[in-house]
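Example 3.2
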Amino acid sequence: MNKTINIATFYRALANKNRLRIIKVLENCSLCVCEIKEVLGTTQPAVSRHLSILKQAGFLEGTKKAGWVYYGISRTKNPLIKQLLAQIFNALETEKQSAKDRRKVKKLLKTKLCKQEKANGKKRTFTS
């Protein structure tokens, strides 16, 4: 794939408010689809589609744990992706919606929304 296509893919992936919210929410923790769905207040298929687009563009990566996939920010070495992520994190830091989303994530992590977490009793944390 040539560089022009990559850049177009990056920016196309970022051209959606919910995808930007997902990136900001995942800045400090990894979440599964059902948790992201709760934060965004949207449907599971919509969240899955957003995650797929962000993952394909290189912004996110998924880690499979006992049948569940937890999504987090990519640990890429690509300088363009790193720069775009830093700009997104910075630009959205003071947004009211970002603050609401952070509160939702903190609450979700305490309630153990996913069946897997309830089964294994592990507690995840959110760092801000």
